[in-house]
Amino acid sequence: MAANWGTVDFDWSFILLLILSWYILLRIWENNGTLDRWNSSRVFGVILMVRSKRGLKLLDKTVKPRGFWRFYGEISLWVCMFSMIMVGLLMVIAFITALLTPPQSPPPSASELVAIPGLNPVIPLGWGAVAFIVALVIHEFGHGLQARAHGMRIRAFGLLQLGPLPLGAFAEPQYEELTNAPSKERMRMFAAGPATNIFAAIVCLMFLGGLAGQFVATDDGVHVRGIVQEEGAYNAGLEPWDTIQSIDNQTVSNVDDFYDIMTAYSANDTIAITVMHQDGDVETLNATLSDKYDYYLELGWSKSNLADLGVEQGDAFLGVEGLSGGTAGIDRLAGPLSPRWDGNLLQKSVMVPFHTLSMMIVPFELQGVAMHPFEESLLEADDNPFAQTLGTNGLLFLVNLFFWLLWVNILLGFTNLIPMVPFDGGHMFKDMLRGILNGVKKVGRKLKFWDINPMWIEHISSKASNISSLALLGMIVFILIIPYF
């Protein structure tokens, strides 16, 4: 079974002591010239900005097919513009929803509000730290590639650190070259970082799809993720994650077998279910079936909806939810790219972006892991040479690695597309306003729809960007604090 590099319980007073100690250490290094020798500086009081010229030669070699990278920048720009608009709309919708219908659930703890590996309970320390470092590096390398592809020089790469924890990364272009660059080129540069994260996430999903084909289930059977209280399965003693092996001596190898067998029964019938519990014990339980039609009516379903679904009076209902086979855990991660997913190439292509975004909820559902430990225990390596070489544990290690790389890249990419400064989306939004105010359209030559003084354009775009940034910041703060009232 793969290692679970989990969260760590922290004492807040101890954390504050560490931050204070770090601050004092930074002030000492600042006063004795150590930070100057390291080409570093202190920002926001306790953040260390470390600059390095490492990677600049690799950047210059990588950017040589400049035409390709400019095309990549254009694709990145369109992807990020669309995503930025969607992120902005979702934030407005979330704000209005929180305003009209305040959440009733308990407010999150302080540790849940920060995306720091190990401190946030859904981001494990080991996997989270590795994924954040990789995601930050490729994010800033994407910025650097676009800057160099358009002739802007990069002074240094660097990290923002709070003690040993990396909080961010940056590619530092020549400021004058950046500000004097055409808006389109500057927007490509800002878009390249988040877009690189988004593309990297899709690549990670492709790897997960390939890894899904390297697993088989250890045993036949169908396991249940949930039990409906006071129904037949609950009264018989079934428990979550039990594996149903047979019903009345009829073998249940997969989910289709289960439903095929259940069609022969009606409400009030009693069946003998052979189940294997999580501890490996096998037991035969007697369950009395209830009426599926009545059950869904009580839940609020209409008779017309049930008729459309083909549910009739007297249909058997066992009272189990989340039925799935032994490979369900890895198939759920791989989604449309799993070899066991039914659908053609077009359907898979359409589903990939939506499935990639849906992966963000997995750690919240499973409390910081990519796959439930029981679902991991149902997997073993296939008998092909590649799978046998890595073994089950090696394959699960790669699954966890690519899942967390995907998760952090999506988090970093879309967070940076929030249309507020200092995020990349904020800088893109400001340049978009400049372009609109310039009112320029190319029809053989540049034609202005209106003529506004360049100084006014800069003033208006800066003002509008600042106001929108403050408005979005207010929305974020409201959404975060409303659960506490």
What's a quick, concise take on this entry?
The chain has 2 domains: 12-209 and 410-484, no CATH class; 222-321, Roll (Pdz3 Domain). Strands 6, 8, 9, 10 and 11 form a 5-stranded antiparallel sheet that branches. It has a 4-stranded antiparallel sheet with strand order 1-2-3-4. A two-stranded antiparallel sheet has the order 5-15. The chain has helices spanning 12-31, 34-37, 56-62, 66-100, 125-149, 175-180, 183-212, 232-236, 255-262, 292-298, 303-309, 328-334, 345-358, 362-365, 373-377, 385-415, 424-438, 454-481, and strands at 40-43, 47-52, 154-162, 165-173, 215-217, 222-223, 226-227, 243-247, 250-251, 270-276, 282-288, 290-291, 316-317, 320-321, 379-381, 440-443, 445-448.
Structure description:
The protein is α+β, with helices and mostly antiparallel strands and 485 residues long. It has 2 domains: 12-209 and 410-484, no CATH class; 222-321, Roll (Pdz3 Domain). The chain contains 18 helices and 17 strands. It has helices at 12-31, 34-37, 56-62, 66-100, 125-149, 175-180, 183-212, 232-236, 255-262, 292-298, 303-309, 328-334, 345-358, 362-365, 373-377, 385-415, 424-438, 454-481, and strands at residues 40-43, 47-52, 154-162, 165-173, 215-217, 222-223, 226-227, 243-247, 250-251, 270-276, 282-288, 290-291, 316-317, 320-321, 379-381, 440-443, 445-448. The strands form 6 sheets. Strands 6, 8, 9, 10 and 11 form a 5-stranded antiparallel β-sheet that branches. A 4-stranded antiparallel β-sheet has the order 1-2-3-4. A hairpin with a 5-residue loop joins β10 and β11 (282-288). α4 (66-100) packs across α7. The chain is elongated. The relative contact order is 0.12. The model is unreliable at 1-10 and 440-444 (pLDDT under 50).
